[in-house]
Amino acid sequence: MKIKYRAYNLRFKHPFTISRGTKTHQPTLIVELEHFGIKGYGEAPAISYYDIPVEKMIEDLEAKKNSIEKFSFIDPERWWHYCHHLFPKNSFLVCALDMAGWDLYGKMKRKPLYKLWGLDISKTPVTDFTIGIDTIEVMVDKMKENPWPIYKIKLGTEHDVEIITELRKHTSSVIRIDANAAWKADEALEKISAFKNLNIELIEQPLAKDDWEGMKFLFERSPLPLFADESCVAENDVGKCHEHFHGVNIKLTKCSGITPARRMITKARELNMQVMAGSMNESTVGSAAVAHLLPLLDHVDMDGPLLLAEDVATGINFDYGKVILSDQPGLGITFLNSFS
Ligand code: MG
């Protein structure tokens, strides 16, 4: 097997603000695995909150390049285990390698991943479109610029209820909220009670990631469903979230790829929890990986390619929230660049 990689810094259409700060570009790593002339692609965007920059992914990859290239690839699950043991502290890099392994495997089997998994792609949740924190005027303008059936609104300000009250006047679309861990339990309960009257669908990560006591309090009282994002990173977090959240937001990059994500979905269903998949502003490469999981999900947030001004691949399209996959094998994407 041969491996190549390239770092990108993809520009957002508009600067993107959440409760932790603003960014104009999304750094991301794309890897290419080549096996008997077939190429598979994977992606891991760097998110400063999780403290794995692209440089660290490259450093780790370079250190173990020989071990990667000597692996005899047969199936993606064994490949994931191998990578997980090679890079136990770098779930982002493992995600990119796992995704490339699945793309490669689908191409070897000449089937799109959802078909390999026996999934029916005809009934899938529509993706939301994210509106970052800004002045109310700008947030309203962004909604008008992007008519969409579901908006995800980022909050975590002094005037969260005022923002939603105003946005609600301008749209009858579904609105879900992501506080990115910005609230305290009492404050959250007060705000969520107000949001209930503004016809809000769900709340993502209201409290700090390890505020389990606060979450228990909120879980027992919240009039709206609560979803874990920052509190649900790795596989064993699904069990921890049970009876603290109503659902989990699974992200491939956080949990280290498609392989563990599929196990997390199964676990969440066993616990009667709802399942959402999210993104970290992946390009079409990483977003396509999420798209193949769509039939297994209740909700999805995969608007990366819509928020970014630049992309590295084609292969998925969006029609007013509906995600349209290609019928090409593997991830079904066409990479636009060459690594050599
Ligand atoms: Mg989130």
SSE diagram, text form:
Elements: E1 2-18, E2 21-35, E3 38-45, H1 54-63, H2 65-70, H3 76-86, H4 91-109, H5 113-116, E4 129-131, H6 136-145, E5 150-154, H7 160-170, E6 174-178, H8 185-196, E7 200-204, H9 212-221, E8 226-228, H10 237-241, E9 247-250, H11 252-255, H12 258-270, E10 274-277, H13 284-291, E11 299-300, H14 304-307, E12 313-314, E13 316-319, E14 322-325, E15 334-335
Parallel strand pairs: 4-5, 5-6, 6-7, 7-8, 8-9, 9-10, 10-11
Antiparallel strand pairs: 1-2, 2-3, 12-15, 13-14
The site of magnesium ion has 7 residues, from loops.
Could you please describe the fold and organization of this structure?
With 340 residues, the chain is of the alpha/beta class. It folds into two domains: 2-110, Enolase-like, domain 1 (2-Layer Sandwich); 116-335, TIM Barrel. It has 14 helices and 15 strands. The two termini are 16 Å apart. The relative contact order is 0.16. The model has no long low-confidence stretch (mean pLDDT 97). Residues 178, 180, 204-205, 229, 249, 278 line the site of magnesium ion.
Summarize this entry quickly.
With 340 residues, the protein is α/β, with parallel strands linked by helices. The protein has two domains: 2-110, Enolase-like, N-terminal domain (Enolase-like, domain 1, 2-Layer Sandwich); 116-335, TIM Barrel, CATH 3.20.20.120.
